[in-house]
Amino acid sequence: MRFTKMHGIGNDYVYVNCLEENVENPSELSIKVSDRHFGIGSDGLILIKPSEKADFEMEMYNADGSQGAMCGNGIRCVAKYVYDYGLTDKTSISVDTKSGIKYLELTVENGKVSLVKVNMGQPELEAAKIPMIYKKEKVISQPLGVNDDVYEVTAVSMGNPHAVVYMDEIEKLEIEKIGPYFEKHPAFPEGVNTEFVHVIDENTVEMRVWERGSGETLACGTGACAVAVACVLNGYTNDEVTVKLLGGDLKIFWDRKENLVYMTGPATVVFDGVIEA
Question: Which residues are catalytic?
Answer without folding.
Answer: 71, 220
